[in-house]
Design goal:
Blueprint (H helix, E strand, L loop, with lengths): L11 H8 L9 E4 L6 H13 L7 E5 L3 H9 L4 E3 L13 E4 L6 H15 L1 E8 L1 H4 L4 H12 L3 E5 L14 E8 L7 H16 L3 H5 L3 H26 L29 H6 L4 H17 L2 H4 L4 H8 L2 H4 L6 H29 L14 E6 L2 E7 L2 E5 L16 H15 L8 H10 L6 E2 L3 E6 L3 E6 L2 H15 L16 H10 L2 H9 L1 H4 L3 H9 L2
Parallel strand pairs: 1-2, 1-4, 2-3, 4-5
Antiparallel strand pairs: 5-7, 6-7, 8-9, 10-13, 11-12, 12-13
Helix pairs in contact: 4-6, 7-9, 9-11, 15-16, 15-22
Length: 539
Amino acid sequence: MLENKEFYPTPKALLEKMTEDVNFPMVHSVLEPSAGKGDIVNFLLKETTEKSRSYASLDIDCIEKDPSLRHILRGNHMRVVHDDFLTYDTMKAYDMIIMNPPFSDGCRHLMKAMQMQERTGGAVICLLNAETLKNQCSNERISLMKMIERHNGTIEFIPDGFLDAERKTAVEVALVKVQFPKPEARSSILDTLKRERAVKEAAAPENAYLADNDFIKAIVAQYKMEVEAGCRLIREYEGMKPFILSAFQKNEDKHSQTKECILSLNLCTQRNYYEGGASINEYIRLVRKKYWEALFTNPKFVGQLTENLQREYFNKVSELMDVEFSMFNVLEVKIDMLKHVSAGIEDAIIDLFDKFSHEHYWYDDSGNNIHYYNGWKTNSAYKVNQKVIIPLNAFSTWSGHFEIYHVQTTLQDIEKCFNYLDGGRTDALDLQTALKKAVADKQTKNIDLKYFTVTFYKKGTCHIVFKDEELLKKFNIYGSQRKGWLPPAYGKKDFSEMDPEEQAVVNAFESKKAYEEVMSKRTFYLSDVNMHLLDCANE
């Protein structure tokens, strides 16, 4: 061994310095490209065994050019994978390359190690002649130094590192450490799809960009991307199968077909497990399931539904797995949802209309909630005033303290009705937040909510004052029309075209001028709630 002029076994002190920063729990695969007689390998195995037995199973590959040294390595049950590191060609990824290469050729050895780790990520720890870095006498050395600097490597010069070594030398050495990050996982299939999509968008009309901002269109586009990427992956795998068989002789046993390939591509379903392989159709069903589930749990999509309705639609996911997740089908589902909502919203608005009027006729303070007028074919028509009083106790019967638990649901129901009538004109104001703040501030009067202010009194009453007169008017028109108290011609004819009986009812309800204002703003005052809900499906 001493005949090998390049053989300088690494002393223990240097080995300790080389590995002092190594996080061994994160190191599994190691390459020693100038293994000698195995000093570095033995040190690593001993070090990991002493620190923790769980780290002792390092996967270590050795390379050694000297035949005699290779014989020693194999005799000590060390894995020798090649003879010359500079000609070593592998796709295997190493968490760490640690080495003490020949001093005469350290530049090329370190450069190759860094190139390997640059591709796969991992650490490089190398001892080399200090002159290699200090004396920039060649383009090769200049390139080496630039690469170390580019990757934020560290260099420590050690003047007497080999004075106490098995084979002594006074040569100054440099300890180089470089940590390369793991490359970001990339999919060529997804990259291709994104480029194709970008080309399509560039060729599309300008309004296509606006459409992409729409929630439903965006999630459908994402679904299409995921389905196409998965289908391409499955087809790619099917095309690769003949080249990745576990044996050169094809297994004719049909029950063992899933074991034919070294690589397996399966779907995460019991059904697919028994069938073997990845079916494109089954993959699409599973992706559909994921997107329908996501849709039915998204507040943007199901926010208007009651809890029961949300649960009902979520339970339909198993059926919808066989239905394409497309704009058409999503909108069909949304329209169906809104039909369920609209079926109940008319009743809710009329119930509220009644709540503010004759429902509390027996309650003294509620007497001024409504204004009577001579309606169509009746003398008992009424409309709700700007201020209404209802029995609603916000004070604890035990402590007498102001609380929101007893009033929140009622106020939410009122707000929900006006939300539908409002059509999104009014800025959002969270009711629960506003009530909690009022409790914290001990404010019981003129609490500002989205559509009205509320005042609570200890005798158990709540005073509601509507802030938007136009919205209150729409509420009264809606209630009066559904009750049949306004002429059938209301909102269909100009005032001048009405007969005297019709005009009399309009004058009793609001006045000629006010009616003309209604006609000028028909889209707001006379919009059908059902139509508004269906319009929401296309927003």
